[in-house]
Specification:
A hairpin with an 8-residue loop joins β1 and β2. α1 runs parallel beside α2. This protein has 208 residues and is of the alpha+beta class. A six-stranded mixed beta sheet has the order 3-4-5-6-8-7, with helices on one face. A two-stranded antiparallel ribbon has the order 1-2. Helix content is 13%, strand content 32%. It comes from Actinoplanes lobatus.
């Protein structure tokens, strides 16, 4: 419905929700040749994500330098704000990351892969480390401790939840964007999201 606002991205794939607003969207300058949605299992405890069709949107993009598989996702939130190994939400994150790991493993080993989105786990969490070790992915923001969730007076130091993970030999660098208020069409000032944006420049196959 907003195609006139994004003319530079003519190729679009989305996965909707059942009742609540949200979902996953991939916009591309290049053709999307394949796409599918993989839903996460409904694990305890009961939470709003049951209505959101949480999962992963797996798309193959035919770029000028060859095909790239992009796995766009949004994991369940940790409503305890506790990412220790013993927390009840840690098992949920591990289960959902396991689904992503199987999607990565199903891609041809020689194909470039990008896993991106709000993983709802900090960059230094044990489950993310397990996931990176299992899949061989690399975090292009590794070592960057800046929050990607917009700090609030009640939560002045949130973790970095948003990630761009790539499979070598792909490399890249990233920066945080959309951190400031913008002026809307009606003159109001607002932030675009409760998260910052993450902009990345990725190199599919480094020279040499």
């Amino acid at each position: 419905m907003y195609r006139h606002l994004i003319p530079r991205y003519p190729h679009r794939v989305s996965a909707g929700t059942v009742l609540l607003k949200g979902g996953l969207v991939v916009l591309s300058r290049w053709p999307v040749t394949r796409s599918r949605f993989v839903r996460f299992p409904l694990t305890a405890p009961a939470r709003p994500e049951y209505l959101m069709r949480k999962g992963a949107l797996v798309v193959t993009v035919d770029t000028d330098d060859g095909e790239v598989v992009v796995i766009n996702t949004h994991l369940s939130a940790n409503r305890d704000d506790d990412w220790s190994a013993e927390n009840r939400y840690t098992d949920i994150a591990r289960t959902e990351l396991g689904v992503l790991a199987r999607q990565v493993a199903a891609v041809d080993p020689g194909a470039p892969v990008v896993v991106t989105g709000d993983l709802n786990v900090p960059r230094d969490s044990v489950v993310l480390r397990e996931f990176l070790n299992e899949t061989g992915l690399r975090d292009v923001l590794a070592g960057d401790a800046r929050p990607t969730y917009r700090p609030t007076p009640g939560w002045p130091n949130p973790p970095a939840f948003d990630h761009i993970l790539v499979r070598p030999p792909m490399t890249g660098a990233a920066q945080l964007v959309f951190q400031d208020e913008v002026t809307l069409a009606d003159g109001r000032h607002a932030y675009l999201s409760d998260h910052y944006g993450v902009e990345a420049d990725l190199i599919l196959r480094p020279a040499g």
